[in-house]
Amino acid sequence: GENVEQHPSTLSVQEGDSAVIKCTYSDSASNYFPWYKQELGKRPQLIIDIRSNVGEKKDQRIAVTLNKTAKHFSLHITETQPEDSAVYFCAASDSYGQNFVFGPGTRLSVLP
Amino acid sequence: NAGVTQTPKFQVLKTGQSMTLQCAQDMNHEYMSWYRQDPGMGLRLIHYSVGAGITDQGEVPNGYNVSRSTTEDFPLRLLSAAPSQTSVYFCASSYRTGLGTDTQYFGPGTRLTVL
Fold first, then answer.
1. pLDDT in tens, B40-62
2. Is the pLDDT of residue B95 over 90?
3. What is the pLDDT of residues A52-85, one digit of tens each?
C-alpha cells in the first residue's frame, strides 16, 4: 500500500523567512496531494492541494510543487508569520480515495 | 451549512464496552471517511465509503465497524473497546469528481479514552 514520509518533523523559522516541508510517496497510482494545517486541539484544514497533471500551484504565500518522477512533493510558505505556527500534514490519494494516506506531520514554529 | 458534525466531543469507556461515534454532513458529499489521530503518527484511515450502501476498509480497520445507509450519515462503531483505541477520531467528507477525491472537510473530532 501507499507510504508517505514527511520531513522535517519539526521546523523553526524566524518571522519573515521561508519554510519548506517535503514529502515522498511510494504508490505511482497516487494522483491527489493535499496539504493540511492543524492548530492545537482543532481539526485539520486544507490549505492547498495539487493533482498529478500539474507541477506547481500557488496561493498567495503558499505554494506546492510536485515531481511525479521522483515521487515527492513539497510545501513552500514564504514571508512566514506567527499565525503560521501549527502542525502541517501532507497526504497522498489515488483517484478513488482508496489509499488516502497522511504523512506523520511537521510542527512548524515561527519565531517573532 | 453545518458542514461535518461529530458527536460526542468527548467519551470515556471501560475496556470491553461498545459505542457508536456519530458523523453527519449536509453537503451531499459522496465520500466519507473515519480517521484516528495518535500523537506523532498523523492521521490513519480506519474505514471509508464512496456512497450510500458502500463501505471499505482503510489502513487500521480492526475493532471498528461502519455502515452507510444514507448519504448524510456515517457512524463508526467500536465493538469491544480496548485501551489501544484511545485516540482522537475525525470524520471527513468530500465530493468525488471525475478527477477523483476532492477536498476533504473534517469534523471537529471525538476524543475517546478507554480505561
1. 678 999 999 989 999 999 889 99
2. no
3. 888 999 999 999 999 999 999 999 999 999 999 9
Which residues share a beta bridge with A63?
Answer: A58, A76
Side-chain-side CA neighbours of A34 within 13 Å: the count stands at 20
Q: Which amino acid is at B79?
A: L
Instruction: Select from B42, B50, B108 the Cβ nearest to the Cβ of A96.
Output: B50
Partner residues linked to B110 by β-bridges: B89
CA angle in degrees (0–180, nearest 5) for A80-A86-A87: 120
Q: How many residues does chain A have?
A: 112
| Statement: residue B96 has pLDDT above 90 | no
Q: CA distances (Å), A12 to each of A60, A81, A109, in order?
A: 21, 12, 5
> What is the grid cell recorded at B96?
468525488
In whole angstroms, give the CA distance from residue A15 to residue A28: 36
Query: Most B CBs within 10 Å: which of A6, A46, A95, A100, as the mutation test of the B interface?
Result: A100
**Backbone φ and ψ of A106, nearest 5°:** -130, 125
Q: Do A32 and B99 touch (CB under 8 A)?
A: yes
